[in-house]
Task: inverse folding
């Protein structure tokens, strides 16, 4: 029977869907959302516009943008009861563990937007998720550091509001630098969507059974957490910490190349890109801008990362295997400079990717050819055999 199926572990050559949202040419290092290059969006657009673009297929005009901002900000608060849920976690819980739990629990708070057969309810659920993710992510941070939760402010931009909820405390005036807010917004744009990556495929597979959107996004968050995927931004910083100084780079490169050593260069390599990840370029440039703005000259970690990149890209192993820095390589250095603890890095990825997840989920549910996702297998277990009673085993 096994001959009936194509066997493609890791889906390296299997398309799981038709999609009109994001296009990647891995050999050229090209990424486009709805036909717009990521570099253009990162330079000229803002995250709310990119959200609208991913959800609706076009950039908004002025009225559409105003309405979208109004509708998103309408949903920024979370149900007050959710605070009790946060308090059930240990203070030292990893914020990604908290995110999986809290976002999954949203379906228990917002029953009125879980009917996936109704396109309007699907959009309300999508808006709720995009609007509430910064609030929940900031709460996850506040809970770990033991500070009071900060309510959203709808007069601020999406990125500013997130920085406000994360870093402001009631006893002090909090000022957000426009460069920092712009950098945060750009980081969100760079993470917004990336076609059928593991977490998006997880959201689609979960959604294909008709599960509610909040549960599906929680599944996506769980998948993103792994160090081979979104968890790599956290792992990059841990790796740079471990390497410590430029003179130890060759030793770690040798380990990355050694098949008997499980160590891999975190933030390097990609299933689709066999060229520079265009997001990593913008990220590196943003990194310089942020460090300049913060007055950090010669940040040793950035120097170490750039030196690591330079040496790796001259090494035949990385050249032959076409291993380049990916989106996660430089993001952690910026996030650290902005004051985020390492454990929050993947949470920020999840926050920004939420729009991609809901856009892809909406596209799938609205597709009449959609079926439940149900891969087959090649059975490798025992052949049929007779049952042996316990006393004879
Ligand atoms: C993200 O898919 C997406 O779009 C994801 C993402 C998104 O926006 O959603 O772009 C976000 O997840 C970025 C990737 C973050 N992960 C890391 O940085 C972790 C380190 N990188 C990898 O483990 C790896 O490169 C993957 C997981 C990203 C890709 O894995 P593949 O496509 O399954 O490739 P592979 O592991 O089979 O590698 C091919 C070869 C192997 O050598 P050979 O067995 O052929 O001799 O390249 C080697 C690997 O050993 N290799 C590496 C390496 N990555 C691959 N060697 C050393 N260091 C590395 N980082």
Result:
């Amino acid at each position: 029977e096994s001959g009936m199926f194509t066997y493609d572990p890791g889906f390296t050559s299997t398309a799981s869907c038709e999609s009109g949202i994001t296009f990647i040419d891995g050999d050229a290092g090209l990424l486009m959302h709805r036909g717009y290059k990521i570099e253009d969006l990162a330079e000229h657009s803002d995250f709310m516009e990119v959200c609208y673009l991913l959800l609706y297929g076009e950039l908004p005009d002025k009225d559409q943008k105003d309405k979208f901002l109004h509708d998103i900000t309408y949903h920024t608060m979370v149900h007050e009861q959710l605070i009790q849920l946060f308090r059930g976690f240990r203070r030292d819980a990893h914020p990604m563990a908290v995110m999986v739990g809290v976002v999954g629990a949203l379906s228990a708070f917002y029953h009125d937007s879980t009917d996936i057969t109704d396109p309007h309810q699907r959009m309300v659920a999508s808006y709720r998720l995009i609007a509430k993710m910064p609030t929940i992510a900031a709460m996850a941070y506040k809970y770990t550091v033991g500070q009071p939760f900060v309510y959203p402010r709808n007069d601020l931009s999406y990125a500013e509001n997130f920085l406000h909820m994360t870093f402001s405390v009631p006893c002090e005036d909090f000022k957000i630098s426009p460069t920092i807010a712009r950098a945060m917004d750009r980081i969100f744009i760079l993470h917004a969507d990336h076609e059928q990556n593991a977490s998006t495929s997880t959201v689609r597979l979960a959604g294909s059974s008709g599960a509610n959107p909040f549960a599906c996004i929680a599944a996506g968050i769980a998948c993103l957490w792994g160090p081979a995927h979104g968890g790599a931004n956290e792992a990059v910083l841990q790796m740079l910490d471990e390497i410590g100084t430029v003179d130890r780079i060759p030793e770690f490169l040798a380990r990355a190349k050694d098949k008997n050593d499980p160590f891999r260069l975190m933030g390097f390599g990609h299933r689709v890109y066999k060229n520079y990840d265009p997001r990593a370029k913008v990220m590196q440039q943003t990194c310089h801008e942020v460090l300049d703005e913060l007055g950090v000259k010669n940040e040793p970690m950035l120097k170490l990362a750039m030196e690591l990149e330079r040496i790796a890209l001259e090494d035949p192993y990385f050249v032959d295997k076409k291993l380049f820095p990916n989106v996660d390589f430089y993001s952690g250095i910026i996030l650290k400079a902005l004051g985020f603890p390492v454990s929050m890095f993947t949470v920020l990825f999840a926050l920004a990717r939420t729009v991609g997840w809901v856009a892809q989920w909406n596209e799938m549910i609205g597709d009449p050819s959609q079926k439940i996702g149900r891969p087959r297998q090649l059975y490798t277990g025992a052949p049929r055999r007779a049952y042996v009673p316990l006393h004879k085993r």
